Amino acid sequence: MQFHDVEQNTEAWLQLRLGKATCSNFGLFMANDGKAFGEPAKKYALQIALERDTGRKAEYSFSSEHTERGHEQEPIARMLYEDENFVNVRNGGFFDWGEYGDSPDGLVNDDGVLEIKSVTAAVHYATLMRKSFDPVYRWQLIGHLDCTRRQWVDFVSFCGEFKEGKQLIVHRLHQDDYKAEIERLQQRRADFLGLVKQTLQNIS
């Protein structure tokens, strides 16, 4: 593994991710775990194969109003997290494993990472009631633990519509509590990377 201290969404960061399975998309191939890959996983394999074949970012990767809001509000959430936890959050960079990699939203101390989600009031409220992380991001969070080899990841839900003191919800996942899930991820990812190679052979 090689760590690259690059800022997210820069040209250098995009180039490092090109042709690699990245943590934010691990859920695509973890769906139907134990069964054949579904259409989302096959489309993702094709995207990666095309990037490897052409050396260009796939055209159908997308940005939405939700991702744009996240880019705008993530620094606010990070500052709140730093203030509430008395820590400095460092750049998450890119953890490069060759065929796959990971870009956490920040590094905390020597053993932790952050995943920040800027969400709507309804989603934030659901997380508040759940008293746990949003399960939509389960495999991204477990992927952080696997790819960074750090001891914990803090899932951070942020919503500026709530009053002060309620805008940030933090739930910590510890490496030791998710060993079985990490192993499942590693096995399924290996199979998925095999699908990518087969797809690349088909289009080359």
List keywords for this structure.
18% strand; 7 helices; single chain; alpha+beta; five-stranded mixed β-sheet; Lambda Exonuclease, Chain A; four-stranded mixed β-sheet; 204 residues
Our count of helices gives: 7
Major beta sheet, strand line-up: 3-6-7-8-9
CATH architecture assignment = Alpha-Beta Complex
Silhouette: globular
CATH topology: Lambda Exonuclease, Chain A
First-to-last CA distance: 28 Å
Output the helix-strand order: EHEHHHEEEEEHHEEH
Task: Give helix % range.
Answer: 40-55%
Total beta-strand segments: 9
Averaged pLDDT, please? 93
Any idea how many domains? 1
Uncertain spans: none
Q: The biggest beta sheet, please? A: 5 strands, mixed
Query: Structural class, from secondary structure content?
Result: alpha+beta
CATH class: Alpha Beta
**How much β-strand is present in the residues?**
15-25%
Taking all Cα atoms into account, the compactness measure Rg is: 17 Å
